[in-house]
Structure formats: C-alpha cells, structure tokens
Amino acid sequence: MPTPKSSDAATPAAIAERIRDAILEHRLEPGAKLTEAQLCDVFGVKRGTVRQALSLLATEHLIDLEPNRGAFVASPSLREVHEVFEMRRIVEAAVIERVCRDRDGQGAVHMKALAKMIERERNAFEHRDFRSWIRLSGEFHTALAALTGNRVLCNCLAGLVARSTLISALYESLGRSPCSFDEHAQIVDAIEAGNTEQAAELMVRHLETVELKMLDRPARGAADLREVFGV
User: Fold this and answer.
1) Higher-confidence position of 213 and 203
2) What is the mean pLDDT of residues 19-42?
3) Ranges for the HTH gntR-type domain (predicted)?
4) CA–CA separation, 7 vs 15, rounded Å?
5) What burial class does residue 5 get, using C-beta atoms within 10 Å of its C-beta: 0-12 exposed, 13-18 middle, 19+ buried?
6) Torsion angle defined by CA atoms of residues 207, 208, 210 and 212, in that order, rounded to the nearest 10 degrees
7) Which of 29, 190, 230 is nearest to 96 (CA)?
8) Would you say domain 78-212 falls under CATH 1.20.120.530?
9) Looking at domain 8-75+218-228, which of 2.60.120.620, 3.90.950.10, 1.10.10.10, 3.20.20.70 is its CATH number?
10) pTM of the model
11) Looking at 34-48, 77-91, 213-227, which range is the least confident one?
C-alpha cells in the first residue's frame, strides 16, 4: 500500500511539483504516459486532484493532454529545439547586459554565490550525480536572471529553461548534459571583470553549443510511476 500522504503533499500544486521534478531530473522521459489511475495510487488522491496537477503542467508545456488518449510527457520537435534556444539567446544576452549595467555593492557577493553554485555543479558531475548536475545546470541560468530583479523576465526564463531540460531528456543521454560548468565559470569571470560584451558573447556561444550538442534519439515512452516516485 502507498505510504499515507500529508494534506500538503496531496495538493494539485505539490503533485505537479513532484512530477515536474521527475521530468526535469530525467526520471520521466519525453513520451512517457502519465496514467491517471497510477498517479492516484502513487499519491493517494482522487482523479480530480491528479487532473488539476496535470493541467498545471500542461500550461508549462511539460506535458501534453491528448483527448481520448491521456497525458504524456511532452516530446519537443527539432523545430521547437531551435525556437526555444533562439529565444534563450535573446533573453539571456539581455540578462547579462542588465546584470553588468546594474551591479551594486552586492555584486561581489552575488558572483561568489554563483561561483559556489558552479562548484556544486562540478562536484555533482564528478560524483556522477547526474540528476543534480542537470538541475544545477538550469539553476545557474535562472539564478543569474534573478539578479536583474525583474520577476516577469525570471518567470519567462524559468519556463524556457524547463523546456530546455525536457529537450535535453529527449535528445541527450543521461550523464552527457551539454550545459558546461566550465563555460558557466567563464561567463561569471567576464561579468566580474566588467566586460559586458565578452560576457554576453560567451553566453550566446554557450547556448549555441548546447543546441548543437543535441542528439536525435527516441524516448522509450514508458515508465513505472511507482518506481519513479519511490512508492
């Protein structure tokens, strides 16, 4: 029998977060079917709660809801790969320019925090903790955007990073994330040096490299949801 869930852990938002994490950490691959009955069993909730959670994820483009077929982890096309990374290059170049322009007395503290994040990213890779590595790779970009103080921009980029991670799950093998911590470190170094043009160029080049490293490989499309969520 599933372990009883607390009321907080059984809300649509909490369930959506659990599923989101499983997708972004590559425990659920693109194309995997999210069977309502299994999810109800896993989380100890009724179908209405599961359907609300799935609707939340559908608005984030992380799952597809198909009439008469059910819910599936989204499978981005190659065209979407290009469009997502094109948008990221535009947004993140602007992030670099804003961060460099508006650096205040806390600039050194912020850069130190980013450097520590990159070190955790490196350690996760060296210890073969690939799921943490993937998560930290995305968090570097969202943490950098947070320094702008622009919540709309941050929400926009968070959505793009989430979709990029989903794309990575489809086109990359686990343990071969194209997002390089060494390139992240070079970007931070350029920001610290006050070289806005170089930092923006490094970010654009970094994202171009990420896009080019994507490999065309089909997802398995099936998953044991009890195993994925540790029930």
Assistant:
1) 203
2) 89
3) 9-76
4) 11
5) middle
6) 170
7) 190
8) yes
9) 1.10.10.10
10) 0.72
11) 213-227
